[in-house]
Amino acid sequence: MIRAVFGKLVGALTAVFGASLVAFLFMRVLPGNPARLIVGPLATQQAITEQEKTMGLDQPLWIQYWRYIKGFFTGDWGFAYSAGETVTHEMAVRLPASAELGLYAFLFAFLFAVVLALVATYRHRPIVDGIIRGVSFFGLGTPPFWFGLIVLLLFSQVWHVFPGPDGRIGPNTTPPPSVTSFYTIDAIIAGQWGTFWDAFRHLILPAISLGLAPFAYLVRLLRANLLDISRENFIVVARSKGLSRWNAFEHHALPNAFLPTLTAGGLLLAQLIAGSVLVERVFNWPGIGGLVVDSILRQDYAVVQTFVLLSAVAYVVVNLGVDLLYGVIDPRVRIPVTN
Amino acid sequence: MEAAAALAPDNVLEVEDLETNYYTNEGIVRAVRKVSLAIERGHRVGVVGESGSGKSALALSILGLIEPPGRVAGGSVRLNGREISRFSDRQMQQVRGKEVSLVFQDPMTALDPVKTIGDQIVESIRRHTSLRRDAARRLAVDLLRDVEIPHAERRLGDYPHQYSGGMRQRVMIAIALANSPDLVVADEPTTALDVTTQAQVLDVLERLVTERGTAVMLITHNLGVVAEFCDHVFVMYAGRVVERAPAEKLFARQAHPYSEALLESVPRPDRLQRGPLPTIPGFPPSLANLPPGCPFEPRCPVGRGVEVCRTTTPVPVVLGNGDVVAECHFAAERVA
Amino acid sequence: MTAAGVRPDAEEALLWVDQMEKTFSLRGSHGEVIRAVDGVSFDVRRGETFGLVGESGCGKSTLARCILRLIKPSGGRAIVDGIDLVALSPAELRQMRRRMQIVFQDPYASLDPRMTVRGIVEEPLVIHGIGDRAERTERAADMLRLVGIPPEQMRRKPHEFSGGQRQRIGVARALVLHPELVVLDEPISALDVSIQAQVLNLLRDLQQRLNLTYLFIIHDLSVAEYFCDRLAVLYLGTVVELGDRESLFRRPLHPYTVSLLSAVPIPDPASERRRTRIVLRGEVTPIAGERQGCRFKPRCPVGRDREICGREEPPLVEHAPGQWAACHFPGELAPAQPAEAPAA
């Protein structure tokens, strides 16, 4: 068991380093010179060279890479020239916003998917199949930003149910004292229920928009798994003991169907945490999506490299978590066949 | 009818004109076509048939476990004198696992892979008794010992994948007999098992049902198992019981050509056989499009091409002392 | 000097298996191995049907795959028509494959559902570059006709056929190259009883017509007794008894063989009630790590409490002409039933 965990850790680290290398080289392969972009089109050659020196671009590639990696682990993530702040500062401000949005998007997607899949499978009717298929097509085929615009229009401007696109909280609310940088969680910790409610209301529309596609994907996956499992012999056996249909379903079918859905869910979560540019733009969400796009356009190496590395770490951590979770909850993995 | 009740056998199960259909895109599949049978208390009955005979559908119909697109379309099922074919699922939940239980085929997939063996036995016990967890667990350990699982106490906490196929099947038997039901329906309980494992499983089953006086409906295509285990035999073909007889009589002389052909096509080491095996040509008919007349006619060594067999459905003919019934136009002549 | 279980003139045999071994190492456990095949030797003459009988875990499928070099054996040799398969180069082995083919157990899984029947049966010809398109189709059609599938149905896909028909297609595929040796891995176990008889008759007919030699892997003893000329009974990777059909079924020497035979239910209630069964208790556990003594001892009615059985592994010895058994007390356990049922 220990060997398996160790192997996974090594794999994880390799993945992270691989990603960092790719990001590093990719940025440098792009045409153009970031130093020139910063000092402007009218600068002299000397000014450009000076700037390059400040940015450390005159050093050989491997030294630059080493400084990048070393900096990442010591917390020195460089300077974001496009924003005029250190990368650490920018990340600290913007990353939690995206992460919180991603988390809620995932929660909504997952909850709705579970409920819909359960309803659909428990009483299996062809019309429900049609509904699910329709919902899936819609969810997977609709651009999230377009959907965001529509719900924003309807729920905010027309029906005034939810707040407009003014960011994470309304203009009259102050953010709660920062513990996790997640407004909703921090508000609960501080006991500020009003703030919590405001933050939550601001989260709903963008989270639903962002979670639409993952929801469509998950509902199909979960339903397929549930359908397969409910036809298995052990469900018939469970019923033959006198268990009610619901009991057999909830007690035996669900746990078995969830397992394969875990892996897909983990991947989706990692993806969502990494942020979505367009949805963030629609809702004026102060996340890292916008920052990263700008940085790519301006060849702001430090931001992009750090972002890639952070995303890689997020993916790897989530996947590792799912793997280990499997090892805990699936007895076939936990206890190898000793017979 | 009631006056004769005192002389009538004590039947734990009575099935009359049972019909089960599956409504599919390809048409209506008539899996069970007006089947009638009875099982006396404590008796062991074999239901013999191949794929497409309707035997599994019969088992599930008795237990009320036919799911859409299937449906019990008619007939009656009386268990311990009570008419259960019209029971709601809620009512059946009281019956299943308590008065009638199921031993299913394929022990590999018949147990929940993520629950312990103990949990799955206890589940059956606590469903029908008011025993507390620890009492139920103790009973479960006893049951495991009964079915010859070594180190029963320790193995209660194991998962199905840690058991071998034979052990899993014996656990199924333990679960089925946990509440001492009056009838056990065993659907191909040993088909997936090795021959020595099969012997052990049947041995265990025999001991337990004898101790408890449980009746058994053993569904199988293995004629040897039937000969060894069952007192009575029902031979099914295309959704009907084409012959019913006490085991000794059936194996000595078969009234229905299908029963005879089936027995002939199995290699027997106790007979010196070296030439080609007598076979039944063709294959079983599709239950969605049954031709008129006898369903076995196209393959029947006796009736193929015969006018009456092709056009008229045979009616059950009572033979012998009244304990042999066969559905064949030529049944009477064959055993005369 | 040939190994035990092999007849003296094995060099003329079509197939000669010499001390075949296959070990699998267990993942993540300190050097523990499972000896799936632990020194098996036998010979098969041209035109014979040789049966490998045993239950799950005995290694018969692994053995067959080792013989055909579908998996790499850990030791031993398989000699086909005087040619040592182990010593062949990949190209030479490929050539040899034309002479030895296999029919698999599961007619539902062993045919590619996306290919037409024609494609399936022609594939071996394509792989070995035999003939042009027209010739291949003709050969495939001939073979299908031979197994009882009308060639007009060549364009259909496997799912349009029944289990028995699919198995016939599998046989056609195996025979289209006109091999000499055919391995049949439980070819009828997944079929209905009445279909089993059909396929067995077909196999017998084809054997006579095409002069085939069969290596027949089977767990159903009734079928084995009916179909095979000579048999080897396998237990946990070794041969515990080997001999011709007559001797093995009438005068079995090894307690496992006797138990196996007694466990087979006979479709005759009268004789069933008469005989007493030997029911083997306990589980078959694959050997991992070192072992002492006879591998059948834990379950053996004869040797369970005998000291020598726990100390020394019994060698395979020819106890009767043409009949080998690996037992310290061969013949002690009497068969539990009369040798022949009285005439009905």
Describe it.
The complex is a heterotrimer of chains A (339), B (336) and C (344). Helices cover 76% and strands 1% of the residues of chain A. By secondary structure, chain A is mostly helical. In chain A, strands 1-2 form a two-stranded antiparallel ribbon. In chain A, helix 13 (288-297) crosses helix 14. The longest helix of chain A is centred in the middle third of the chain and has 38 residues, at 193-230. The model of chain A has no long low-confidence stretch (mean pLDDT 83). Chain B has 336 residues and is of the alpha/beta class. Chain B has a single domain, classed as Rossmann fold. In chain B, 32% of the residues lie in helices and 24% in strands. Chain B contains 12 helices and 12 strands. In chain B, the strands form 2 sheets. An 8-stranded mixed β-sheet of chain B has the order 6-7-8-3-9-10-12-11, sandwiched between helices. Chain B has a 4-stranded antiparallel β-sheet with strand order 2-1-4-5, with helices on one face. In chain B, strand 1 (11-24) and strand 2 (27-40) form a beta hairpin. In chain B, helix 4 crosses helix 6 (165-177) and helix 6 runs parallel beside helix 7. The longest helix of chain B has 18 residues, at 195-212. Chain C is α/β, with parallel strands linked by helices. Chain C has a domain at 10-99 and 179-325: Rossmann fold (3-Layer(aba) Sandwich), CATH 3.40.50. Chain C contains 11 helices and 12 strands. Chain C has an 8-stranded mixed β-sheet with strand order 6-7-8-3-9-10-12-11, sandwiched between helices. In chain C, strands 2-1-4-5 form a 4-stranded antiparallel β-sheet. In chain C, strand 11 (317-320) and strand 12 (323-325) form a beta hairpin. In chain C, helix 3 (117-127) crosses helix 4, helix 3 (117-127) runs parallel beside helix 5 and helix 5 (163-175) runs parallel beside helix 6.
Topology:
The complex is a heterotrimer of chains A (339), B (336) and C (344).
Chain A: H1 2-29, H2 34-39, H3 45-55, H4 61-74, E1 79-80, E2 85-86, H5 87-122, H6 126-141, H7 144-158, H8 183-190, H9 193-230, H10 233-240, H11 245-273, H12 277-282, H13 288-297, H14 301-329, H15 331-334
Antiparallel strand pairs in A: 1-2
Helix pairs in contact in A: 1-14, 5-9, 5-11, 6-9, 7-9, 8-9, 9-11, 10-11, 11-14, 13-14
Chain B: E1 11-24, E2 27-40, E3 44-48, H1 55-63, E4 70-79, E5 82-83, H2 89-95, E6 100-103, H3 117-128, H4 133-146, H5 152-155, H6 165-177, E7 183-187, H7 195-212, E8 215-220, H8 223-229, E9 232-237, E10 240-246, H9 247-252, H10 257-264, H11 307-311, E11 317-319, E12 324-326, H12 331-335
Parallel strand pairs in B: 3-8, 3-9, 6-7, 7-8
Antiparallel strand pairs in B: 1-2, 1-4, 4-5, 9-10, 10-12, 11-12
Helix pairs in contact in B: 3-4, 3-6, 4-6, 6-7
Chain C: E1 15-25, E2 33-44, E3 49-53, H1 60-67, E4 75-80, E5 83-84, H2 90-97, E6 100-103, H3 117-127, H4 133-147, H5 163-175, E7 181-185, H6 193-210, E8 213-218, H7 221-227, E9 230-235, E10 238-244, H8 245-250, H9 255-263, H10 269-274, H11 307-311, E11 317-320, E12 323-325
Parallel strand pairs in C: 3-8, 3-9, 6-7, 7-8
Antiparallel strand pairs in C: 1-2, 1-4, 4-5, 9-10, 10-12, 11-12
Helix pairs in contact in C: 3-4, 3-5, 4-5, 5-6
